[in-house]
């Protein structure tokens, strides 16, 4: 009997193939039949057995020996948190150096370090940050944020990121909602090598191990600033001389034009009030019109400056909330100080209009000048408190003082010559012009010293200097040319005209006005450089 022959038609083949599951169907069936999360055995190993107890907090623990720079953590964070294009809460960089065993290269993944003493929280004027007392996680409260971006400067690690679409800052919160359910954060779960884990650290031990020289990795900011909790582990320690591969790729920062206008015009306003108060005291023969016009010019410039500052906010309609943090934020203190200054300026200007030479007018002029100087001091502290090298207190204080003096002297000169005859104005105008020349010379020497900062041993300040000599060189030259022409050449020419037996009044007025315009334009350019040339220590791979 002959063997049976298996006769398969094409239809039989098609039916057989339909009974075979596709890869997608097999994957779905595998998950449908699972009674527990399929990756539980991996990500539960990357979580602590117990949540933080008293005096403890969560932290990221990074095993650098396992990091391959695949950036799965970056992608997972971006996807789970629904971040916008170009927005990133985690980054990966590379550090290179030469140690005892020879050259070394190390990838470094970094996100928010959930510091023990977070500078973002301390500097926020609206209390939009919260450090959870149980977990230690530093969270950003989106509904509280007004988009001032001050936390992006106070954080030494450049962690908070401004979202243009939403007009607020956002940052990593260690996927706190997942942690609360016993699930690992997105970056932890996505890492294919298990390089990132969540651990628990005793805060007292962390404080004891953090000294003035501690850093998370070579080149990072000093840990004593905020006491970051992240732990980086490597079998062979990185050389202390190691640097990030992007360490020298400094790019100009945002110019923050509303802040540029606000800073220059508030300082011009304060300088003008001081100048008018000085003229009222030392030049009693000047006409009342000089004092009236001076007070009005100072008032208007101050109000315009305060109005311009609102344009810096991502949520300008919420600007009124910026005084909430007055107990700990220099930005809140500056806002309150300038609000008081504006009120005093209105009262002082009104008094000058009604009775320019009265004791009340002189007293209010002195008061508003003093309040204005205090407010400018608060402006100085806003930037000095960030710890950025370029914005160190002594540099910022000197810079803002020069702007206040130069703009105040130039404005007072214009008002004096515009409201007074040449015969009466000669003496005071001569003094104002020479004072402006001296201030401008000192200001230009100060700027030149900063541009030549190379070789000081301060690598971060050197990056700012290289920006001013390189990418920002045209703007830096324009700043110097404008200030030198308006604050040096114009006053010297004015002194020469004043020395004539019959000084040409119209020529002096035109020259003084031109000098003021050039000085203000130069100071605006200089203040933009103040923001654009700022550099700071940073973690490898942080977006520039």
Under CATH at level 1, the class of the largest domain stands as Mainly Alpha
Please tally the helical runs, counting DSSP H or I stretches of 4 or more residues. Answer: 18
Please state the average pLDDT score: 90
Written as H for each helix and E for each strand, in order along the chain, the element string is HHHEHEEHEEHEEHHEHEEHHHHHHHHH
Spans where pLDDT lies below 50 across 5 or more residues? none
Distance between the termini: 84 Å
What's the domain count?
2
Look up the CATH topology of the largest domain: Formate dehydrogenase/DMSO reductase fold
Class by SSE composition: mainly alpha
CATH architectural category of the largest domain = Up-down Bundle
Main sheet properties:
3 strands, mixed
Helix content: 40-55%
β content, as a range? 5-15%
| Strand line-up across the major sheet | 8-1-9
> What is the number of strand segments?
10
Q: Radius of gyration, rounded?
A: 31 Å
Using the alpha-carbon principal axes, give the shape. elongated
């Amino acid at each position: 009997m002959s063997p049976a022959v298996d006769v398969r038609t094409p239809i039989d083949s098609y039916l057989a193939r339909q009974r075979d599951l596709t890869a997608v169907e097999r994957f779905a069936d595998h998950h449908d039949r699972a009674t527990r999360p399929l990756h539980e055995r991996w990500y539960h190993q990357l979580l602590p057995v117990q949540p933080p107890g008293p005096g403890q907090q969560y932290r990221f623990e990074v095993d650098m020996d396992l990091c391959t720079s695949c950036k799965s953590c970056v992608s997972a964070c971006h996807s789970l948190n629904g971040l916008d294009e170009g927005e990133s809460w985690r980054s990966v960089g590379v550090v290179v150096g030469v140690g005892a065993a020879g050259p070394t290269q190390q990838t470094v993944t970094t996100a928010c370090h959930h510091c023990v003493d977070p500078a973002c929280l301390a500097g926020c004027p609206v209390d939009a940050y919260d450090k959870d007392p149980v977990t230690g996680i530093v969270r950003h409260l989106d509904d509280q944020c007004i988009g001032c971006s001050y936390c992006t400067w106070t954080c030494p690690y450049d962690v908070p990121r401004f979202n243009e679409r939403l007009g607020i800052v956002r940052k990593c919160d260690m996927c706190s909602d997942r942690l609360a359910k016993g699930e690992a954060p997105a970056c932890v779960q996505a890492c294919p090598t298990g390089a990132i884990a969540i651990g628990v650290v005793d805060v007292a031990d962390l404080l004891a191990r953090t000294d003035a020289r501690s850093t998370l990795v070579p080149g990072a900011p000093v840990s004593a600033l905020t006491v970051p909790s992240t732990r980086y582990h490597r079998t062979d320690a990185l050389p202390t001389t190691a640097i990030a591969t992007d360490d020298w790729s400094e790019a100009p920062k945002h110019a923050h034009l509303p802040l540029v206008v606000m800073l220059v015009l508030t300082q011009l306003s304060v300088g003008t009030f001081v100048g008018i108060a000085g003229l009222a005291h030392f030049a009693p023969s000047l006409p009342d019109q000089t004092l009236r016009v001076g007070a009005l010019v100072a008032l208007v410039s101050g109000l315009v400056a305060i109005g311009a500052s609102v344009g810096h906010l991502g949520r300008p309609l919420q600007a009124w909330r910026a005084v909430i943090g007055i107990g700990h934020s220099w930005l809140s203190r500056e806002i309150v100080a300038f609000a008081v200054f504006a009120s005093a300026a209105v009262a002082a200007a009104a008094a000058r209009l009604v009775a320019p030479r009265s004791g009340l007018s002189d007293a209010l002029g002195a008061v508003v000048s003093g309040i204005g100087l205090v407010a400018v001091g608060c402006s100085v502290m806003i930037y000095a408190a960030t710890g950025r090298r370029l914005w160190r207190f002594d540099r910022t204080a000197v810079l803002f003082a020069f702007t206040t003096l130069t703009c105040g002297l130039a404005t007072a000169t214009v008002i004096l010559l515009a409201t007074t005859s040449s015969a009466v104005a000669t003496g005071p105008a001569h003094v104002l012009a020479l004072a402006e020349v001296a201030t401008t010379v000192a200001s230009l020497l100060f700027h030149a010293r900063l541009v030549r900062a190379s070789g000081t041993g301060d690598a971060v300040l050197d990056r700012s200097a290289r920006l001013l000599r390189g990418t920002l060189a045209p703007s830096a030259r324009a700043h110097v040319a404008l200030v030198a022409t308006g604050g040096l050449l114009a006053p010297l020419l004015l002194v020469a005209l004043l020395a004539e037996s019959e000084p040409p009044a119209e020529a002096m007025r035109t020259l003084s006005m031109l000098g003021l315009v050039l000085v203000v334009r130069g100071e605006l350019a200089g203040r933009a450089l103040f923001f654009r040339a700022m550099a700071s220590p940073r973690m490898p791979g942080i977006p520039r």
